[in-house]
Design a protein that fits this description.
Layout (H helix, E strand, L loop, with lengths): L1 H18 L2 E5 L18 H13 L9 E5 L2 E4 L4 E3 L11 E12 L1 E3 L4 E2 L16 E4 L2 E2 L2 E2 L6 E2 L2 E2 L1 E2 L9 E2 L2 E3 L4 E5 L13 E6 L2 E13 L2 E6 L3 H7 L15 E5 L10 E5 L4 E4 L12 E4 L5 E4 L6 E14 L3 H5 L9 E7 L13 E6 L3 E6 L1 E7 L2 E5 L2 E7 L5
Parallel strand pairs: 1-2, 2-5, 3-5, 4-24, 5-25, 13-21, 24-28, 25-29, 25-30, 28-31
Antiparallel strand pairs: 6-23, 7-8, 8-22, 9-10, 11-12, 11-23, 14-20, 15-16, 16-19, 17-18, 17-20, 18-19, 21-22, 26-27
């Protein structure tokens, strides 16, 4: 009799606990008009968070022991960032858990399809690429072609077409800070008259800069490059990290990129914004008929947006893959790095050393913070457990602003 009573007690206790916690399901086969049960799941995390928010707003008794948003296996393309606000906060006793049962990808990218073998002649395409390159139309977003700096083929990052093949790089000849120009050796079979969209990547000390090329002056076997503003001024005025010039160890390494004339080996791609086309030379192991090719669209995939007075709390992610974020600032303003991932907004050497708080300081710099796939502002008791951050253009997870907890 005691055994039967204990069994009944345990069953009732489990039913009680179940009644005081809510599971909300999300599935690729779901619909956002559904109720969010396992049998009738929602289609998006956005709607699941809204449902959880309403349960908390109404102080529903069912959430006493928490809310679990369960995302079932699949690739979930995001069209806008998933945003969690103070109203989405849980409590210590009733946290919000967002979990994956199997592999779940929250993607800020778009799958590019419609590939065909290039048969027509394209101006500037190298001879060795003829008959090897595939082409498709660029995705159209907001009435214009999608611009991107990364391309992922079957989960591997493809190479934006560049003038040196493989891991090879050139060495700059000199850097003129006064004139804001750089001299490089002129390669054979390279045409530097058509430079629209061309960029220069340069290694300098502990950082790598991306500079948009403005003009080129060819002088024999040498080419003198000038660059777009504001990166041209910042790159030449800031003292550290600067281009490296050394007869003993060699000058800074560089390469040029983003020109169709550089599309000369497998694994490279070129985005032709003028003609609305994307070109790719597949590797021998890649079948373009069934290849998964993804370009990033969103800068932020998830944003946790608390305020200094009302932070987000007790929201946890588990087992989620955050993938395919973009970052386009280098394409629009260049990128002159400082350190720790920050980029310079302004920087220069002081004529006379010293600031009010640092009397021996010789230079000043103001920095910006790159975009991140997951951005957290004013939150506490949040976590990302067994999550993956990959195929991203910039930062993966950034705890940007932290609240003061007393």
């Amino acid at each position: 009799m005691k055994q039967i009573s204990l069994t009944i007690f345990l069953i009732l206790n489990l039913l009680y606990l179940k009644a005081d916690a809510v599971d909300i399901y999300v599935s690729l086969n779901g619909n956002d008009t559904n109720v969010g049960t396992k049998e009738k799941p929602l289609a998006t995390l956005h709607s699941a968070i809204r449902k959880a928010r309403e349960l908390r707003r109404l102080n529903d008794v069912s959430i006493k022991n928490g809310i679990t948003i369960i995302i079932t296996k699949g690739f979930y393309q995001l069209y806008e960032p998933v945003v969690l606000r103070p109203e989405d906060s849980g409590t210590k006793e009733s946290p919000t858990e967002i979990i994956a049962t199997e592999k779940v990808v929250l993607s800020g990218g778009v799958k590019i399809k419609g590939w065909k073998k290039l048969t027509e002649t394209v101006a500037g395409l190298p001879k060795e690429a003829i008959g090897k390159v595939w082409v498709t139309d660029l995705p159209n977003f907001d009435g214009s072609d999608l611009q991107f700096r990364q391309l992922w083929v079957n989960g591997q990052k493809a190479i934006r077409a560049k003038n040196y093949n493989g891991a090879a790089m050139g060495r700059i000849l000199s850097w003129n800070s006064k004139n804001q120009t750089c001299k490089i050796p002129l390669q054979k079979n390279i045409n530097l008259t058509n430079i629209k969209g061309m960029e220069m990547l340069i290694h300098q000390w502990w950082a790598i800069a991306n500079l948009r090329v403005k003009s080129v002056k060819v002088m024999g076997n040498t080419a003198e490059l000038s660059f777009m503003q504001p990166e041209s001024r910042i790159q030449s005025e800031h003292p550290w990290p600067a281009p490296w010039i050394s007869e003993k160890t060699g000058n800074s390494a560089f390469y040029l990129s983003n020109s169709i004339q550089f599309l000369n080996e497998p694994g490279e791609w070129f985005e032709d914004l003028q003609n609305h086309k994307l070109y790719y030379w597949p590797k021998a192991s890649e079948n373009m008929i069934n290849a998964e090719i993804i370009a990033p669209v969103l800068e932020n995939l998830v944003k946790i947006e608390g305020t200094i007075d009302n932070p987000v709390a007790f929201v946890n992610f588990k087992g989620i893959s955050f993938e395919h974020s973009t970052w386009l600032r280098p394409s629009k303003q260049g990128h002159v790095p400082h350190q720790a991932g920050m980029y310079m907004l302004d920087a220069y050497k002081l004529d006379k050393a010293g600031t009010p708080d640092k009397p021996t300081l010789e230079n000043q710099a103001w920095v910006g913070r790159p975009a991140s796939a997951v951005e957290v502002n004013y939150a506490h008791h949040t976590s990302f457990e067994v999550c993956r951050f990959e195929h991203l253009a910039s930062t993966g997870l950034d705890y940007k602003k932290e609240p003061q907890i007393i």
